[in-house]
């Protein structure tokens, strides 16, 4: 059962015609999680997760602290493996290939799936070198091309006008909100397919938060975005679909307006109406 | 609570009031800064005293030997009875040969060890290896000295034909081994203090572990690494026992490394342990060489401070 999708992909890869059919069929679903369980040592952190995530949508993951929402997000690009005691079962199909299969090159996955972290984490390099880092490690050396990528990425992250005259200054001279948009631009520079965002505005002031939220709306035209947030208003404002996590389980997953106006589960209603969490 | 309710039940404030011995505490509070200042002052005074002694004796030396003959002289023959010459360049060259070879050994190995310990080793391995490295830094240099003379030199003579019993290669390598733990340990500290969020940021862009280590962590830790290298150079320049035992006592102004040399430190040892009488030019020459050495290490230490400021990457 685990092997099947992988084989299917490999067969399809050999026949270009089939591949096109597959990619057309796959156009809607980016991630398909089937029966995912995850343990940190003895702790059962994710329990039987089944989720389908669509392309060119913003999917929000909400839930109280410790519910597994960040863990789930980090499983999608296998960053969760940085914790040495982690164990998983089940499968996550990304574009129809199981990423939990050890044969799946994690670097390849992370080149296709970018990530923005809770705290802005630019490298202690110039703004330019921050953005050019991704393209460079993937072999792009051409100076002119890099210049174009840097400009395009910074424009994409709506920060070009603020930094265009100081591209060679250290990124740490920028404000927190600007740093976070630099991190988004750094992520855009390798033109990923999906962007994972782990509470990207929790360390930012309200104005910077608003800018990032507007940016997310803009970015969903070209990217699929999965955003973890503890801010329910934010989820309601920017997402198309919302998944509510509680104690490692998906309690409810539906269109955002349904989750917030007419949830099916009592626990979801209690959470979104602010009765706990 | 503050007011007295009954004799048996005292408020905490009142108990504090009763136990406090105000007079003694005040004296301690007043005297302590003075005592601390005194100890700090004494250590400064001793340092200044040493530097002044060096300067006075060096000054005396330069009344006998012209300054430019000393700085630019290429012959160091203080023991030649009739016409001694005091050109310091052969001693400096000797020191630089040993230091250069030491850095060729210590920098790549030390950095490789630091990268391994900081980026690859498990917590358990790191906790085992780091103390061992630090023990290596505590080995007395005299031990390294006879290790160079009785083990490394014979071994090298097998490989390099014509290598003399005293040479620059063997002490150079062993000085390198001696400073390797310093460079490895300090560089590891610098790399470990790079926040994990930066590694995660790089990994999330599809970097391999090696790319993270070389392109993110290493540049971010550059100031600490360079400072450790400069500190290593400074220690190599000042190293005495290894070069005295295995380097020889032949100051020569040339580029060979397979024959006997003499470093500044080894010359000082040679004269100090010999029978140069007080007041002779030879006696004063060790102060001049000592002062030269001091200038070298001072420059290195200032450089280390400058580098850690200049290359500091804020994060």
Strand content bin of chain A: 15-25%
By CATH, the topology of the largest domain in chain B is: MetI-like fold
Low-confidence stretches of chain B: none
Overall spatial form of chain B:
globular
Tell me the CATH topology of chain A: Rossmann fold
Radius of gyration of chain B: 27 Å
The biggest beta sheet of chain A reads:
6 strands, mixed
The tally of structural domains of chain B comes to 2
Determine and state the CATH class of the largest domain in chain B.
Mainly Alpha
Strand content of chain B: under 5%
N-to-C CA distance of chain A: 37 Å
Q: Main sheet of chain B, how many strands, which sense, barrel?
A: 2 strands, antiparallel
Please report the number of helical segments of chain B: 13
Q: Give the assembly state of these chains.
A: heterodimer
Mean pLDDT of chain B: 90
The helix-and-strand class of chain B reads mainly alpha
How does this structure look, described?
- Chain A: Part of the ABC transporter complex PstSACB involved in phosphate import. Responsible for energy coupling to the transport system.
- Chain A: Residues 21-272 form the ABC transporter domain.
- Chain A: One of its GO terms (biological process) is phosphate ion transmembrane transport.
- Chain A: GO terms for molecular function: ATP binding; ATP hydrolysis activity; phosphate transmembrane transporter activity.
- The complex is a heterodimer of chains A (277) and B (315).
- Chain A is α/β, with parallel strands linked by helices.
- Chain A is built from 12 helices and 10 strands.
- In chain A, the strands form 2 sheets. In chain A, strands 6-7-8-3-9-10 form a 6-stranded mixed beta sheet, sandwiched between helices. In chain A, strands 2-1-4-5 form a 4-stranded antiparallel beta sheet.
- By secondary structure, chain B is an all-alpha fold.
- Chain B folds into 2 domains: 12-64; 85-310, MetI-like fold (Orthogonal Bundle).
- Helix content of chain B is 73%, strand content 1%.
- Chain B has a two-stranded antiparallel ribbon with strand order 1-2.
- The mean pLDDT of chain B is 90.
- Chain A binds chain B through residues 77, 79, 82, 84, 107-111, 114-115, 117, 119, 121-125, 133-134, 136-138, 170, 172, 183, 186-187, 190, and chain B through 122, 195, 197-198, 200-208, 211, 215-216, 219-220, 313-315.
């Amino acid at each position: 059962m685990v092997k099947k999708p992988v084989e299917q992909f490999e067969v399809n890869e050999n026949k270009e015609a089939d591949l096109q059919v597959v990619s057309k069929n796959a156009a809607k679903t980016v991630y398909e999680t089937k029966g995912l369980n995850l343990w940190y040592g003895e702790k059962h952190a994710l329990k039987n997760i089944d989720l389908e995530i669509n392309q060119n949508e913003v999917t929000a993951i909400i839930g109280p602290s410790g519910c597994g929402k960040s863990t789930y997000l980090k499983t999608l690009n296998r960053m969760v493996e940085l914790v040495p005691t982690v164990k998983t079962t089940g499968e996550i199909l990304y574009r129809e290939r199981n990423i939990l299969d050890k044969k799946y090159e994690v670097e390849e996955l992370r080149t296709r799936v970018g990530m923005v972290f809770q705290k802005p984490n630019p490298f202690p390099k110039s703004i330019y070198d921050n953005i050019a880092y991704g393209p460079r490690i993937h072999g792009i050396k051409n100076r002119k091309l890099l210049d174009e990528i840097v400009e395009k990425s910074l424009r994409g992250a709506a920060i070009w006008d603020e930094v265009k005259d100081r591209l060679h200054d250290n990124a740490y001279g920028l404000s927190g909100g600007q740093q976070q948009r630099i991190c988004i631009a750094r992520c855009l520079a390798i033109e990923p397919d999906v962007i994972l965002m782990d509470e990207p505005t929790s360390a930012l002031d309200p104005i910077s938060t608003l800018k990032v939220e507007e940016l997310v709306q803009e970015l969903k035209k070209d990217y699929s975005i999965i955003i973890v947030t503890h801010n329910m208003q934010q989820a309601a404002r920017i997402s198309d679909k919302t998944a509510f996590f509680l104690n490692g389980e998906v309690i409810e997953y539906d269109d955002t307006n349904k989750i917030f106006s007419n949830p099916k589960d009592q626990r979801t209603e209690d959470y979104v109406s602010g009765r706990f969490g | 609570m503050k007011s007295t309710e009954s004799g048996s039940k005292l408020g905490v404030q009142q108990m504090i009031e009763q136990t406090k011995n105000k007079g003694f505490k005040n004296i301690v509070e007043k005297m302590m800064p003075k005592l601390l200042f005194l100890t700090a002052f004494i250590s400064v005074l001793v340092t200044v005293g040493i530097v002044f002694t060096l300067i006075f004796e060096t000054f005396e030396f330069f009344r006998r030997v012209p300054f430019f003959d000393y700085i630019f002289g290429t012959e160091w023959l203080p023991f030649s009875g009739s016409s001694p010459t005091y050109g310091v360049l052969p001693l400096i060259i000797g020191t630089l040969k040993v230091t250069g070879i030491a850095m060729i050994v210590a920098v790549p190995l030390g950095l490789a060890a630091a990268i391994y310990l900081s980026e690859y080793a498990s917590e358990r391995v790191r906790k085992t290896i780091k103390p061992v490295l630090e023990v290596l830094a505590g080995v007395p240099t005299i031990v390294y000295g006879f290790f160079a003379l009785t083990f490394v030199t014979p071994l090298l003579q097998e490989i390099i034909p014509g290598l003399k019993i005293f040479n620059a290669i063997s002490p150079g390598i062993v000085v390198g081994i001696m400073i390797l733990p310093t460079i490895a340990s300090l560089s590891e500290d610098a790399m470990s203090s790079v926040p994990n969020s930066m590694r995660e940021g790089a990994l999330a862009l599809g970097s391999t572990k090696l790319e993270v280590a070389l392109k993110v962590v290493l540049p971010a830790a550059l100031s600490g690494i360079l400072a450790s290298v400069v500190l290593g150079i400074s220690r190599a320049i000042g190293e005495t026992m290894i070069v005295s035992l295995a380097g020889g006592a032949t100051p020569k102004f040339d580029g060979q490394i397979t024959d006997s040399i003499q470093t500044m430190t080894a010359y000082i040892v040679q004269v100090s342990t010999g029978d140069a009488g007080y007041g002779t030019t030879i006696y004063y020459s060790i102060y001049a060489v000592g002062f030269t050495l001091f200038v070298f290490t001072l420059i290195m230490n200032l450089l280390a401070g400058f580098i850690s400021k200049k290359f500091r990457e804020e994060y």
